Protein: Mevalonate kinase
Organism: Chishuiella changwenlii
Amino acid sequence: MKNPLFYAKIILFGEYGIIEDSKGLIVPYNFYQGALKFEHSEKAEQSNFHLKNYAKYLKENFAELFDTESFCKDVEQGMYFDSNIPQGYGVGSSGALVAAIYDKYAITKIDITQNLTKEKISELKCLFGRLESHFHGTSSGIDPLICYMNIPILIQSKDDISTIGLPTANNEGKGAVFLINSGAPGETAPMIHIFFEKMKKEGFRKTLKEEFIKYNNACIENFVKGEYSPLFSNLQKLSVWAFEHFRPMIPQKLIDAWKTGIDTNTYYLKLCGSGGGGYVLGFTQDYETAKNHLKDFQTEVIYKF
């Protein structure tokens, strides 16, 4: 039996700010994917072990919502999550797993193909947040939501989430949105802890609200409309702000590259997910020039314009 594939996701805009009710723009990233399968191998054994723990978690907390009997039985028979989504890279490895399990074992699934209302999306997000909290301690539910729906999502606020169309990519364009590999995974929980520690300070809360959220929301508006000149003006401010206030979340290897982008105005970097490691997002109006500055790093284009 062929199981559905679930793809990675990328938070283009809204990391951390989503927690404080800023806007967010999240897109599927089909380069990475995962599916539930049966196989006996070393890789399968490791994944199967994690699924056993998760099956226990579902049985204890969500027995009324899931066919936990079938899930536990399949896990005992060697089921695993076959995935090339890198873990700890901010692209939704646990989100794709949660989406796959919901799709296969939820007793009453919310149908996303018919009459998809904001209420249904909100209900799904809430449930997915509870399901994914097993992996990170806390979860907004956004990652599994985008992995499950596989369409771009615009977050206006915590309770206002909808699907959205994006400008058509231009594969011949010079501009690009790209990923930079920091070379090592990051851990979500410690980064979230740093953020909440910062939120205890009034000065940080003020600058987050008056500057970060303002630039973030403007970037989303510019990007969705395909207005690239104001987009890069706001990206520059966003990147400078993050360099000053999100420094502990920026992977150490990328600190200099981050500053070079700002100093030369050839590209701007921002966090991809919680940071600390994994991927960082880059935006440039001339990818070839940006690549020369970043020749020591592995880059991966996700969108051209």
In short: The longest helix spans residues 202-225.
